[in-house]
Design goal:
- The chain is an alpha+beta fold and about 110 residues long.
- Strands 1, 2, 3, 4, 5, 6 and 7 form a seven-stranded antiparallel sheet that branches.
- Strand 3 and strand 4 form a beta hairpin.
Amino acid sequence: VAEGCHGSAEVCCLEFDRPLDWMAFGVWLSMLLRCHGQRILRVKGILDVIDASQPIVIHGVQHSLHPPVHLPAWPAGERRSRLVFIVRDLDTALLRRSFAAFMGGLGRAA
């Protein structure tokens, strides 16, 4: 997990090796955006999803998520999920704790 500060916005990056449960991830992200969407300026990510051989790319602005894009293959490098949030007036530790709770309780293991 890495963070940085750029002006009044902060960047929070999450990386994880374990494939995600797509439905549980969608619930977590939807709840996060519903509660804090006005403070989440951007979210982008590439996801390794259980039972999918191809990566899924997500991106959104505040409360709005664009339809996910299924890439034909993984780009060069490791097959792992990465999410980048650009936030304003939101504690990035909250994102990390929220995601850790999701990974520990909601998402089924691969």
